[in-house]
Amino acid sequence: MTADLSQLVKAYDVRGVVPDQWDEPLAELFGAAFVQVTGADAIVIGHDMRPSSPGLSRAFARGAAARGADVTEIGLCSTDQLYYASGALGLPGAMFTASHNPARYNGIKMCRAGAAPVGQDTGLAEIRRLAEAWLDSGAPASDATPGTITRRETLDDYAAYLRSLVDLTSIRPLKVVVDAGNGMGGHTVPTVFSGLPLELVPMYFELDGTFPNHEANPLDPANIVDLQKRVREEGADLGLAFDGDADRCFVVDERGEPVSPSAITALVAARELAKHGGGTVIHNLITSWSVAEVVREHGGTPVRTRVGHSFIKAEMATSGAIFGGEHSAHYYFRDFWNADTGMLAALHVLAALGGQDGPLSGLVAEYDRYVGSGEINSTVDDQAARLAAVRAAYEGREGVVIDELDGLTVTVGDAWFNVRPSNTEPLLRLNAEARDEATMARVRDEVLEIIRG
């Protein structure tokens, strides 16, 4: 019977419970398969602070070296630090992390040289097939000369590269609270912020993959409550929250109020357009209407895509876009090999805030023009049937525009909503937006009533 790794190998990465779903021997097979599929003669590997990460990472390195690849280990790092190493060194890479998942999980995010993503259609399915075959019969012997495994530090170079992309030397002094959630932000922030005119108030910087204070997922409002309180107590200019592998960054203003990732996307887009003298900006279809408006106002061309980093990165590559943003606080930069880095977005926010005298709430107001519902999940028995019911309820109405780029997006006058099925759970995800709270609430509740029957 052939092994089945379908529950472990997802659309964009490997992710599962250790040791129940995978362990070091399987990680070694993944390392060998990665080298065989990419044809790499050298790779770079990094890992987060989870208890299982060092062992899994080293096992992957052994598998890769056994197939003839020279392995550079950069040790503890954020995911965007691994992307930096892949881009700067010109090597395929593997990052061991399960991002914001609980401690018992771990995973691998893989990329080709220059941080180009490896997903189902770009090598991950083939890596899975090889690993499944080898689980049954063992990896065949390689006639390649075994590669070397060496260590290299990249944190200082990563920090210097990010600072070279955003000028923070002349900003006014700012007081910033950072909640690292016991994740990799506690590793990267001190070095990136070193020497800048910032008074840093650290929260939960101790690297601890058991996440003793709160889940390292700032997308859940419950996980930024501590940050909001501390910003107000400290009289800080802003707060920043990073997820477990520190590739996403969430922003809180001086009042302790969350700043919409769409507003951050619009703000950073305006800065990147000014820097590059125009260009294309990618945004997924869940981001606010304000993003496309701001991009056009600043001389850029907005391009709307499906949700998901593989779609964003593919569109970045084909269109030559200078920047891309998602509602989930993933921010992508052409100057960063089209990869996502929350840290670079944070530096842009700091530069914009420190370059003027007003508070962050006033600065972002011009980029935050609508009222959004946030993402609302509903468990359903039949995703397709409920989606069809929503479509039937709006189809044919005067002034209604429907498109199906990703799920169902319906524009109704001064409001819009999107309903998308989850790929992994029996859920429908609703996002709605309007010019005012009352209209948004009316549309949101009307759609939820249809979804939930």
What does this entry look like structurally?
- There is one protein chain.
- The protein is globular.
- With 453 residues, the chain is of the alpha/beta class.
- Helix 13 (383-394) crosses helix 14 (437-452).
- The strands form 4 sheets. Strands 1, 2, 3, 4, 5, 6 and 7 form a 7-stranded mixed β-sheet that branches. Strands 17, 18, 19, 20, 21 and 22 form a 6-stranded antiparallel β-sheet that branches. It has a 5-stranded mixed β-sheet with strand order 9-8-10-11-12, sandwiched between helices.
- The protein has helices at residues 24-38, 53-66, 79-89, 124-137, 155-165, 185-193, 225-234, 261-276, 289-297, 309-319, 342-354, 360-365, 383-394, 437-452, and strands spanning 14-17, 42-47, 70-76, 93-96, 105-112, 116-117, 149-151, 174-179, 198-203, 238-242, 249-252, 258-259, 279-284, 300-305, 323-325, 331-333, 371-372, 376-379, 400-403, 408-412, 415-421, 427-434.
- It is built from 14 helices and 22 strands.
- It folds into 4 domains: 14-153, Alpha-D-Glucose-1,6-Bisphosphate, Chain A, domain 3 (3-Layer(aba) Sandwich); 157-259, Alpha-D-Glucose-1,6-Bisphosphate, subunit A, domain 3 (Alpha-D-Glucose-1,6-Bisphosphate, Chain A, domain 3, 3-Layer(aba) Sandwich), CATH 3.40.120.10; 272-341 and 356-365, Alpha-D-Glucose-1,6-Bisphosphate, subunit A, domain 3 (Alpha-D-Glucose-1,6-Bisphosphate, Chain A, domain 3), CATH 3.40.120.10; 371-452, TATA-Binding Protein, CATH 3.30.310.
- It holds the Pfam family PGM_PMM_III.
- One of its GO terms (biological process) is carbohydrate metabolic process.
- Keywords: Isomerase, Magnesium, Metal-binding, Phosphoprotein.
